[in-house]
Write a structure and sequence with these properties.
The chain is an alpha+beta fold and 270 residues long. It has 2 domains: 7-75, no CATH class; 94-263, no CATH class. 26% of the residues lie in helices and 25% in strands. It contains 10 helices and 13 strands. The strands form 2 sheets. Strands 1, 2, 3, 4, 6, 7, 8, 10, 12 and 13 form a 10-stranded antiparallel sheet that branches. The protein has a 3-stranded antiparallel sheet with strand order 5-11-9, with no helix packed on it. A hairpin with a 2-residue loop joins strand 1 and strand 2.
Length: 270
Amino acid sequence: MKQKESPILRFCYHTIPGRILLRVLISPSISKLCGLFMDCRASAVFIPFFRRANAITMKGVEIPKGGFSSFNAFFCRKQRRTIGDAALLSPCDGLLTSIPIHGNQIFDIKHTRFSLEDLLHDRTLAKEFENGTALVFRLTPAHYHRYAYAADGEILHWRRISGVLHTVRPICTRQVPVFAQNAREYQVILTKEHGKLVQMEIGAMLIGRITNEAPYGKRAIRGREKGRFEFGGSTILLLLQKDAAELQKKFLEAGRDGGELPVTYGENLI
């Protein structure tokens, strides 16, 4: 389904004055200031409006005694989740696109082309995922913003890359190589069933924090909560090596059509 573009985003990405304003908005320091406000008690006033605007259900939500102390406390709410039994799971709620990687390039992720080397800032690692598969999970503000490890395995490497913070809505990804510019954090995980994979969290405009928990014994545990995004939309990316996993047919078909398929935290992908 085509997503309606907001007038504000059209102004920011399609006009000269808007692009000047955008230079300020995408700064990590602006996102940090917004994050500080969203942590304060006064921000809780926005919770009822946000819930109604995004039709958010409170079923299964863990509500703190006395209610949520801030908007971010609500945005990062804990909620009961069902974990599947497959060796590869969806790490989050979101909209999934499956994309084949051609050589060192991932083509047409929301109309954006970029190299694996730019994405990972690691030429040697990028070569290991040539001709593999990229699974792109786009989270909207209405989605649950906690996420889990997608598979069991040994965490070989953990890296954070600073960057600017663009929105991940399609209007932006048509204009700039978002995933190669935005602040992001990734882990290289060696699994028994699927070889080596990369799980990456990518920040977006007005998200200054990707908060990951320290890995238990330096191991990824399938379905175990890994971390959370704070305020806004964002993206999780899984990189799989060539022939590492056979995804369910519905995910492959959605990817071929360039569409997005809704998935839930802990859902079986294979």
